[in-house]
Amino acid sequence: MQHRSQRITVVGAGYVGLVTGACLASIGHEVVVVDRDAGRIAGLEAGVMPIYEAGLAALVSGEIAAGRLAFTTDLAAAVPGAAAVFICVGTPPRPSDGHADMAQVMAAAGEIAASLSAFTAIVVKSTVPVGTGDEVEALVHARAPAADVAVVSNPEFLREGVAIADFMRPDRIVVGTDDARAAALMAAIYRPLNEAGAPLVVTNRRASELIKYAANAFLALKITYINEIANLCEEIGADVEDVARGIGLDPRIGSQFLKAGPGFGGSCFPKDMLALMKTGQDHGVPLRSVETAVAVNDARKGEMVRKIVRAAGGSVAGKTIAVLGLTFKAGTDDMRSAASLVILPQLQKQGARIVAHDPAGMGQAGPLLPGVLMAKGSMAALAGADLAVILTEWPEFAALDLDAAARIMRRPILVDLRNLVDPDEAARAGFCYRSIGRTGREAELRVPAEAAE
Ligand code: UGA
């Protein structure tokens, strides 16, 4: 069937807005992405991406060349004539109380209201607390009482690093609206993805808003759960990788998001858990499982520090620690709520000197981690180190030449907080190796005499 191209305006050229705009263009729509940052827009027009995301630069330049994607700073000119205006601006946690800060969403809604012409769907894609759609609707009606408009919730489920694939082949598309015209428009916009197999879930606006938080919180709970099981594995001599596989094959559990590690981080889970927690408390329905997961995840950073210190023989004072990986996960340069931001300063406080390498994150990390020396490559970071820590699961760390690494270090001690390295191979290379929840398979930790003092 012939798909009808829609005119779409996307407000916000950040992570979500850029991926959304470029992907909507690639499924045939005519898209304008608006951002008030003139430098960012000029950069985008010249092919310079403000964020690191695999495949995005090529997609953006291809869609510009095809005439389906354009950028502007002029929101007032980009709204009239658009069938839908997607709000994709930031909703950071408010420092005062942890609630998600809606200032940018409301400012965008106000500006959109001032420029509406014919029927327009205002689509909130930013992650917003339940009830925000009602607030946006009230604001738009107050600013433009005669406007023919429907406010729709359409949460994003994009993982950094694979965001384009997540947009183009989503597990589901969630649309929250009671307005039949808006529902039909959203179905038309997403028809190419829907026809390719992505189910369209249409709910009321509040359910749609909650789906986003409930999904992220569930995933974060799953990670927290396997991290606690990993702790238990270490005590009883089991391998958490085996346990994860053994439970994950039950389709009611599922095998994804059962990778034990230093705790979840990133721009979404920590912020969204906090916002959902606050929403529950505000409505007299405290979400105890979520509150517990947040506390367990916070405490985990300290546990990781203690694990590193134990591996160093009880003290890191005066020792050089090579840290491989700084970003909150692989495939991104994003440092938001990265475990490194908590773990490294604590090690420094205990007297360690830290040399780090990250394939993408050193630019962002530098100013956030004062005193941490940045090395150009893994081997440069490892040279002369007393201990190495793998903190992010970058593939190049999994492919590390362990024999060379052990030779180049002052003491071959490796703490692998992502279970990237095979314990037997680490032992063969001569490493004293510690990982997460795999005591059953790990070689005895042979702490060199000087380290154990
Ligand atoms: C997350 C969700 O996965 C997306 O579906 C959602 O759209 C996005 O948040 C958002 O709300 O915008 P993202 O933050 O990019 O995406 O990263 P994830 O891949 O989900 O990882 C989050 C954290 O959990 C990372 O620190 C990662 O290392 C950790 N993690 C993930 C584990 O420790 N174990 C796992 O098995 C999976």
Bin the strand percentage: 5-15%
The shape is: elongated
Q: Would you tell me which CATH topology of the largest domain applies?
A: Rossmann fold
Spatial ordering of strands, largest sheet: 3-2-1-4-5-6
CATH 4th-level superfamily of the largest domain: NAD(P)-binding Rossmann-like Domain
Task: Identify the CATH architecture of the largest domain.
Answer: 3-Layer(aba) Sandwich
Number of strands: 14
The average pLDDT value, as a whole number, equals: 94
Distance between the termini: 74 Å
Helix fraction by DSSP (H/I, runs of at least 4) = 40-55%
Number of helices: 20
What does the radius of gyration come to? Answer: 24 Å
Bound small molecules, by name, code or SMILES, are: uridine-5'-diphosphate-glucuronic acid
Tell me the structural class.
Answer: alpha/beta
CATH class call of the largest domain: Alpha Beta
Query: Which blocks of ≥5 consecutive residues have pLDDT under 50?
Result: 443-453
